[in-house]
Each structure stands twice: as structure tokens, then as C-alpha cells.
Amino acid sequence: MENSTIYPEVATELIEIFKFIEEPILEKIPEKLKEELRKIASKDYKFKIDKTKKLNEQKIRPETKQLLSAIFIKYCCRQEDGEEILIACKENDMKIEQEKREKYNPDKIFEKRAEEKKPCFKLVVIKKDPWYKKLGRAIGRIFGIGC
Question: Is the entire prediction scored with pTM above 0.85?
Fold first, then answer.
């Protein structure tokens, strides 16, 4: 595992989570990995687990969740279970992608716009008087005659 692939904050969160994992499961994780995480861990970042909340309710970085899942699949569960989990994850990702495609499909967006009723505008005819009638009215106003 390379130092550059794991953020120090993620390593700190993983070390803190490992403190709450039962010993038989924790023994399955290689010491070399644990030691590498201790080397990478941030000295400044403080992370504490809230014992009253479940792990998925904790404020954990997404990268930590991903790495914890990978560690669990690789070291802690049986190979068959790990394969089932990976298949379920792939199916879930495919469903999410399909939903995105359906939601943001440009063809459907344009179809919806075509189906919407367009506002109906009617032309209004404005009757303009010829120039000579306007001139007559203006002269009539000057002399106080007419409308």
C-alpha cells in the first residue's frame, strides 16, 4: 500500500475504528497494514467515535468508508461472501447509473418540452389614424374645437 493513496485523516479514522472492532476480526487484518496506517496517520487530526451511534451514522469521510469496506472484504470475510458483496455493489452502482441516465436523458428532456402547452399569443390590431386626422385633432385642440 502506498502512502500517497491514503490521506492522513483517513488513516487516523481507520485506526480509531479498529479500536472498536472485536479481536478475532481485528487479528485477520495484517499487522503490516496496521503499521502502515499508523505511519500515515495525521498527528493533528482528532477523530473520536460516538459509542451511542452505529458506524454508518458516524461522521466518517467517504474515503474511509470505501477503504474500510475493502479491508473487510479482503481480510475479514470469507471469499464467497466477499464476492457476493462485490456483486451486490456492482449491481447497486449499475442501478444508480441507470436511474441517472433515465433522469438526465436529453431525448426525454426535449420530449417533455414538446409535450408542454405553449402559451397562445394573439396578435392585437392597433388602429392608427392617418396623419391628416392626427393633424386635424391637434389643430382642434389648439383652438378648443372638437374632441
Answer: no
